[in-house]
From TrEMBL:
Taxonomic lineage of the native organism: Eukaryota, Sar, Alveolata, Ciliophora, Intramacronucleata
Residues of the Translation elongation factor EF1B beta/delta subunit guanine nucleotide exchange domain: 140-229
Organism: Paramecium primaurelia
InterPro entries named among the record's database cross-references: EF1B_bsu/dsu (IPR049720), EF1B_bsu/dsu_GNE (IPR014038)
SMART domains: EF1_GNE
Biased composition (Basic and acidic residues): 75-90
Transmembrane segments: none
Protein's name in the database: Translation elongation factor EF1B beta/delta subunit guanine nucleotide exchange domain-containing protein
Pfam families per UniProt: EF1_GNE
Length: 229
């Protein structure tokens, strides 16, 4: 299993380019440990993969993240070498004499046939469960976007709009990022920068249309980045 420390962020950034979490397909103990050690959002230009990974983990509550501490990364098992099959000499069946009884109906209780039928049934059951689990997987996308308002120099109004967005727009399948940033535009004006994690059934246009509907206050909404989770 890979060893992740706060001193080798370059390695972690490269590792996250090929997987969603340090633990693999699901978050685990390594993700929580490095997340807590960072103590803040890493620089996007230096560690872009860690940056989006951090935003994704930050969208979950501390209580949920605490549940991942006991989840260890799955161990890889080396495939077993197949030994060449040894040929077993076939036993010669004794020839039946004319006087022996002849079984005209055959034997339906052959243990080998019963064993093969059971194995086939178990295989079909496992395939059915695999297909069912695959259907239950829901794709997610991390979206970072910016909101500009007409009174862009009014910090209180900026904070009020950000809170209003989180409080009023909450469809099933959307999780708001914890942090909200207020970035300088020019001459004291600022814009709101927010993040959200949405399931594939949610369309960004539907979310943004609800925000721009506040046309007396909001001037525009634009996507900064989108990344599949």
């Amino acid at each position: 299993m890979a060893h992740f420390t706060i001193e080798n962020l370059a390695y972690i950034n490269e590792y996250l380019a090929n997987t969603n979490y340090l633990n693999g397909d699901l978050p685990g103990a390594d993700d929580v440990r490095i997340f807590n050690a960072l103590k803040g959002v890493p620089p996007k230009n230096q560690f872009p993969e860690i940056y989006f990974w951090y935003l994704l983990l930050n969208s979950f509550t501390p209580a949920i993240r605490a549940q991942w501490i006991t989840v260890a990364a799955p161990k890889r098992q080396e495939p077993k070498k197949q030994e060449p099959k040894k040929e077993v000499p076939k036993k010669q069946k004794p020839k039946k004499t004319v006087d022996e009884d002849i079984d005209l109906f055959g034997n339906d209780d052959d243990p080998e046939i019963e064993k093969n039928a059971k194995a086939l049934a178990e295989q079909k059951q496992q395939e059915g469960l695999a297909k069912k689990n695959k259907k239950n997987l829901v794709g997610k996308t991390i979206v970072i976007f910016e909101v500009k308002i007409f009174e862009a120099t009014d910090q209180a109004l900026l904070e009020q709009i950000a809170k209003r967005i989180k409080d009023t727009i909450n469809p099933d399948g959307l999780v708001w990022g914890k942090d909200v940033n207020y970035e300088e535009i020019a001459y004291g004006a600022k814009k709101i920068v927010m993040s959200m994690v949405i399931e594939d059934k949610i369309f960004t246009e539907d979310i943004f249309d609800q925000i721009t509907a506040w046309e007396d206050e909001v001037s525009s909404v634009d996507i900064v980045t989108m990344q599949k989770g």
